[in-house]
Amino acid sequence: MSFSKGNGTEELLEWYRDNARDLPWRRPGVTGWQILMSEVMLQQTPVSRVAPIWEQWVARWPVPSAMAGSSQGEVLRAWGKLGYPRRALRLHECARVLAADFDDVVPSDVDALLTLPGVGAYTARAVACFCYGARVPVVDTNVRRVVARAVHGLVDAGNPSTTRDLADVEALLPTDTARAATMSAALMELGAVICTARSADCARCPLPDCAWVDAGKPPSTAAPKKVQKFAGTDRQVRGKLLDVLRAGSGAVEKARLDIVWPQDPAQRDRALDSLLVDGLIEQTDDGLFALAGEGAQPSPPRNSSTATR
């Protein structure tokens, strides 16, 4: 047998009630804006790295208008080492739209959420479900893996298919709206802590039936995925360049940036150019570099002799 709406639902919901991690964005009183921030931060970034930064952001920017009143540079600086910093700019843009057009409140409707800058199909459904309790399928990598194994008997989910993936999860949701919202969270939790990509802990799985286990846990037939390296990549260089600008409060000379990656000037300049193209940094009229929105701020003296003139 395989996992289905009528087979395993109660067991999974009970397991989630008893074992769900105490994540800060799951606690009572968390708003749609705060859940939206968490969902954006959690894209491609582990929970352990997101949680402390998210709590800082909630304290500093509890409502969209608070963030909208800050500069892009301030938001980028607060983003720290979460990676993929364009997400921070999208949140800043989203905050401005929410403050101006939505009375500082994140909408509950998926279609309205999709009109917000940087909000895609997954994030819109996640906010609607986890904040407002909507009965909508929420599909991430963890959920796709659980469905692939427990329903289809496959160790890997294969390439994403929005239509198929949403239909698969929709078929598992209870009719009752509140239970359906909990089910969406439970599926995600199961994939995150039990039915993981590297090691499925089947002995602790609450599901009474799993098509993959029943089939003898057949291995994947797909070619092994290449491990994405970080050292030496343009991403690493971009991060080092941003670190220099985040550490200061104004524009800096290019020489300050050059010293962080002297071994490959061409790569360094390519990374710097990509940061400009992405709108993460800006260049002043006199050739200095600063975080987005901070190019017009006064820069510190270039050297002591200049400062005393």
Automatic annotation (TrEMBL):
Enzyme Commission numbers on file: 3.2.2.31
HhH-GPD domain segment(s): 41-193
CDD domains given in the database record: ENDO3c (cd00056)
Keyword field: DNA damage, DNA repair, Glycosidase, Hydrolase, Iron, Iron-sulfur, Metal-binding
Domain of life: Bacteria
Iron keyword on record: yes
Keyword S-adenosyl-L-methionine recorded: no
Pfam families: HHH, HhH-GPD
InterPro entries per the UniProt record, alphabetical: DNA_glycosylase, HhH-GPD_domain, HhH_base_excis_C, HhH_motif, MIG/MutY
Residue runs in coiled coils: none
Cofactor: [4Fe-4S] cluster
Recorded catalytic activity of this chain's protein: Hydrolyzes free adenine bases from 7,8-dihydro-8-oxoguanine:adenine mismatched double-stranded DNA, leaving an apurinic site
Family: Belongs to the Nth/MutY family.
Protein's recorded name: Adenine DNA glycosylase
The species this protein was found in: Antrihabitans spumae
